[in-house]
Predict the structure of CAPR2 protein.
Amino acid sequence: QLKLEDYKDRLKKGEALNQDQLEAVEKYDEVVHNLEFAKELHKTFSGLSQDLLKAQKKAQRRESLLKLEAEKKKLRTILQVQYVLQNFTQEHVQKDFKGGVNGAIYLPSKELDYLIRFAKLTCPERNENL
């Protein structure tokens, strides 16, 4: 654009220009228009790029939150199962299931023993002092 402006100024001062320079001066308005169009296009693409980056970051955050919630749900389920299993190691709970009393269903001793062994294998012992 600067070169074209220089040709235009030289032509106004009456200097002789070669054929290529004259054609370039004739196309000055077209070149300026194309440059403005290119600037607008660049601005539009930059805006779209920024919007896309924002949308990607938002989707990543949403995905991270969903994964975190899924992990919390798994952990909650594990802790609930451990709590239930640990209750089978308590004497009064075992008596209730052996007799089918206090809201507990009747469990044969063999099945209750399986649950107690499973509870001991899967549930770490807690230090009540901590």
About this structure: The CA atoms of residues 113 and 130 lie 29 Å apart. The longest helix spans residues 28-87.
